[in-house]
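In this section we walk through a basic example: taking a raw amino acid sequence and producing a predicted 3D structure, encoded as discrete structure tokens. The instruction is simple. Fold the sequence below.
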Amino acid sequence: MSLLVAFAAGSAAYHPAAWLNTLFLDTIGIEMNAVNLPRSATAAYSAFVGINEEFLKCLITFLIIKDSKNYETPVQGYIYAASAGLGFALLENIYYLKGLNTEMLLMRLCISTPLHISLALIWAAGINAAKFARCGFLQCAAGYIFVSAALHSTYNYQAIYAGSISESAVKTLTVLSVTIITAFFFIRHHKNR
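The resulting token sequence is shown next.
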């Protein structure tokens, strides 16, 4: 197992996640780049994306790495998860390249890329528990996926509903900071078990 395989796992999660995100938008009748959406539609979309993307990243990564001979310690689980988060973010950023101005592209590179890595570190605690505590994937990982999804949803909502790029940067940096602190908490908590 290499970091490249874990990176590919995160990348592999992108396409089904993007397809489901689009299907959700079509189902509720919202255009992807619509402006002035009602807050309820923005909240629903943000929540769906958070749950969808974090669940798929976690599940695909777990299925690919769980039986690897190179996944023998929780630290390796965190490293593989971070690599998967980076793979997902890279593909997502490539997709967004065509429609973003320079400021928004910089925000994606500087804020959403570390966000995806930090979110992966949170659910990595769940896949580590599934692997090393020998409990079922959903039983062990669901709570961690929920925390990641909630933070991801909050990030999306703040990014979509900000009135300006500077307001979006402040709000999303705040969510990123909380996410990084949460990830370090889970890593430290599991290290001391």
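Looking at the output, two observations stand out. Residues 17 and 53 are 6 Å apart (CA to CA). Helices lie at 3-28, 39-65, 74-96, 102-132, 137-161, 165-191. In the next section we compare this with other chains.
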